[in-house]
From TrEMBL:
GO terms under cellular component: cell outer membrane; efflux pump complex
One example GO MF annotation: porin activity
Chief place of localization: membrane
The keyword Membrane is assigned to this record: yes
Protein name in the entry: Outer membrane efflux protein
Signal peptide (UniProt feature, chain positions): none
SUPFAM superfamilies named in the record: Outer membrane efflux proteins (OEP)
InterPro entries the UniProt entry points to: TolC-like
Source organism per UniProt: Bacteroides faecichinchillae
Localization: Cell outer membrane
C-alpha cells in the first residue's frame, strides 16, 4: 500500500522590517577656497536632530525595540502552545489475493485491487503546570524588556543630541575664529607685499622684511590650524547627523 502524509505544522515567525543602509557621503572640504569658508552656514539644530535618527546607531536601538515588541506579542499568544492539531491523509491501491478450491474444483488464485483514500483529524491539549503558572509572569517580564529597549533608545538619542550640540557649538565658534584669521592673513599678505616693494626700493632692510615674513607665516599657520579644526568638526557632524553641511553653503 502506498500512502502519503501531510502534517499540519504551526510555525511562529518574527518578522522585523528592515531598511537598506546607505553609506554616508562626507563632503569634500579639500576643494574649498579660503573665502568659501565664510559662506558656510550651519543648518538648524532641530533638523540635525531629526536627521540623526537615520544613523545606524539610532536605528540599531529602534530595531532592538521592535524585536522586544514582537517577543511580547509571542508571549501573549503562548497559551496557544498548550493546544495542538494533527492530521493525516492516505491514498493507495489495496490488493486482495485469495485461493479457492473444493473437492471438485482445481485450486485457482484470484487477485483484485481497489483504490482507497482516507484522512484523519485530531486535536490535543497538553498544559504543563509550570508553563501555565509562569505565563503571566513571562508577559510582565517581556513588557519590562520592551520598556528597557525604549529607554535605551531614548538614552542613545540623548547621547547623540549632546554630541551634536557640542560639535555644533565648536563649529560655530571655529567659523567665527576662521573668519578673523582669514582677515588677519589677508592683511599680513598685503603688508608683506608692501614690504617687498619697500625692500626693493631700499626703504627697509632685510631685518624688517624678515619680520614681516614671520608675521605672515604666523598668520598663515593660525589660519590653517583653524581651518583644520573646523573641517574636522564639520565632517564628524555630517557623519553623526547624516546631513551635508556644504549644501547649506
Amino acid at each position: 500500500m502506498k500512502h502519503f502524509k501531510v502534517p499540519i505544522i504551526i510555525t511562529l515567525l518574527l518578522i522585523i522590517p528592515t531598511k537598506s543602509i546607505i553609506a554616508q557621503e562626507v563632503s569634500d572640504y579639500t576643494k574649498l577656497e579660503p573665502q568659501d569658508y565664510s559662506k558656510i552656514t550651519l543648518p538648524p539644530l532641530d533638523l540635525l536632530f531629526e536627521n540623526a535618527k537615520s544613523a545606524p546607531t539610532y536605528e540599531l536601538a529602534v530595531v532592538q525595540e521592535q524585536i522586544e515588541r514582537k517577543l511580547l506579542a509571542k508571549e501573549k499568544r503562548a497559551v496557544l502552545s498548550f493546544f495542538s492539531l494533527r492530521g493525516s491523509y492516505q491514498y493507495g491501491m489495496f490488493g486482495n489475493e485469495s485461493t479457492f478450491t473444493d473437492v471438485t474444483i482445481v485450486p485457482y488464485l484470484s487477485y483484485s485491487t481497489q483504490a482507497q483514500n482516507g484522512y484523519t483529524i485530531g486535536a490535543g491539549v497538553n498544559i504543563p503546570l509550570d508553563g501555565l503558572f509562569d505565563l503571566t509572569a513571562r508577559i510582565k517580564r517581556q513588557k519590562l524588556s520592551v520598556r528597557t529597549a525604549e529607554l535605551e533608545k531614548e538614552a542613545k538619542f540623548e547621547e547623540m543630541k549632546k554630541e551634536i550640540i557640542l560639535l555644533y557649538a565648536t563649529a560655530t565658534s571655529q567659523l567665527n575664529i576662521l573668519k578673523l584669521n582669514a582677515e588677519a592673513l589677508i592683511l599680513a599678505n598685503v603688508q608683506y607685499g608692501i614690504s617687498e616693494k619697500d625692500f626693493a626700493n631700499g626703504v627697509i632692510d632685510s631685518n624688517d622684511l624678515s619680520s614681516e615674513k614671520s608675521r605672515q607665516s604666523v598668520a598663515q599657520e593660525k589660519f590653517e590650524n583653524s581651518k583644520s579644526e573646523l573641517t574636522k568638526s564639520l565632517m564628524v557632524l555630517e557623519v553623526i547627523t547624516r546631513t551635508s553641511i556644504l549644501k547649506n553653503k
